[in-house]
């Protein structure tokens, strides 16, 4: 569960085991403010019957009791108590526990709620669980591994307070209170001893509030129901501010589209700069530069406020100085921002950490696209200096050897590979050895091209033709170099990268599809690249693999060497559509949508395994075991795919929305309501008939490019 900066990770029954060093807990600012929350009734934990956590901010758990012996020797039969736990996240964790006596006689219960807080930094928690006794982690986190040794407990009105003074000087507290008030035993157990008659109900409401030096989330209404109503109202208000897509497929509407909207809202953090899509639950619900920018781009046709908030937050932290430890450089956009004790102390570089090569050109690219979509002149004036600093980094510190390509080397402290495929083995030669650095990735050059081209368009619209011409000249030169150095004629595709010796890494990868999304590919090579990416060794039927099945390092169960990433595929589908390859784009969209409908709650994960779709057994994609679910750019995939098949592109000069639909046979109708573009809110419908796609509604702010159906 997540709401704003709060993240809760529990067992399936909603519990947090006490006294076991797990990664479960209530997290706030990368700190485990609650590590244990155990309910016992007459000494036994309840038994789970069902759980409903479809909404990412509320949950309900139906439980019952195990057989027990009551005081006085009276047996309590199993399944004679109905136990219901309902909870949500607002200013903290709010929970209501209701216990109904289904016995024909009165029962006296001893209800214990034991709590625990370690206040461990999330990096310490994950290191403990993932790496065991690895010496490097042990040395770095040894002071953090002494769970509970410096945690204090004290009674407060209505409950207890757990606290710890961090080595960073911040006092972190967790207040646990109940209504009705409980007795407290030991340091951290709330106790209730009600006597319930037949069909009588006992209810207790818990509040768990994390704070740093007394500050925390905005307080919600005091009452449980009022606070939940206020939270639901915030969701409704937000979703009403977004465009609404409905289709001829009720299943698609009620599953993937609805789920994507709810997940994207759940993953938002709300900063004073605006909403920012955090990367994913559970371990990456924090600002990431690359992830935030791609999710912001994907959702321009859903809610452009996400792009505004993302750009403003990243501009606030744009690099100003040179720091080899954090990889910060002037003009650079960060990779990951953490706010826990270890980041504040500098024991990890994520304060923020700038070890990414693509976030900086992506910032300028998404900035240009956002202004084109919104016609937000204030945003243009506000963030243009940041976009120019990003381009300066691309031309200087991002290209230290001056060959015209942006590269990354091994100067960082954390990630060897600094593109979106940032695992160590994601960039290898045919013999499996890691490519030499510095490396120039195919997609990064495409992003730089799109950033310069996009900003050139905006400068021209603003009347600065000198700067526009200069940027267009640079983009043309980059395109010529790119076509010369990255094209693999034998494969009919662009190489994954150039290595440190300026030699092609001859892998066929999904990265090449980003060249179409960014527009750097020539039309002829775009068609050939699309055909190559849809060949059986790349296209699984669910989506395009990250790496060809014919390459020696292929592994369909790997993170980046053969898996399928929904966000990656949505960018490729949008690129195909921009080059007029509409049937090819629709094939990707269909695969992704079919995959999404087969996942629990229609929630596409961060990635899944790259096994071929088996239609004989009506299978679903195989899970990648530690994939983030939900994940922002997987949720954003849905909206970009709808945009691709609708052919939605903004025309800033004429304040028009181009609608160039190519609806596939399996989706003959799409209706769009309250789409914010430029200074208008547009509603229209697209219907696919025997003669082609027809657009209706939208008035004169829509330029219709209706297509004739193929014979």
Account of the protein in words:
There is one protein chain. The chain folds into two domains: 221 residues, Distorted Sandwich (Beta-galactosidase, Chain A, domain 5); 406 residues, Alpha/alpha barrel (Glycosyltransferase), CATH 1.50.10.10. The chain is 30% helix and 23% strand. It has 16 helices and 34 strands. An eight-stranded antiparallel beta sheet has the order 6-7-10-11-20-16-15-14, with no helix packed on it. A four-stranded antiparallel beta sheet has the order 1-2-3-4, with no helix packed on it. A four-stranded antiparallel beta sheet has the order 5-13-18-17, with no helix packed on it. Strand 32 and strand 33 form a beta hairpin.
Question: What would you say about this model in short?
Answer:
By secondary structure, the protein is α+β, with helices and mostly antiparallel strands. The chain is built from 16 helices and 34 strands. A hairpin with a 2-residue loop joins β1 and β2 (6-9).
How many structural domains? 2
Please name the CATH topology of the largest domain: Glycosyltransferase
Fraction of residues in β-strands: 15-25%
The gyration radius over C-alpha positions equals: 27 Å
Tell me the helix content.
Answer: 25-40%
End-to-end separation: 49 Å
CATH architecture assignment of the largest domain:
Alpha/alpha barrel
Strand order of the largest sheet: 6-7-10-11-20-16-15-14
Poorly predicted ranges: 128-133, 144-148
* CATH structural class of the largest domain: Mainly Alpha
What is the mean pLDDT? Answer: 93
Shape: globular
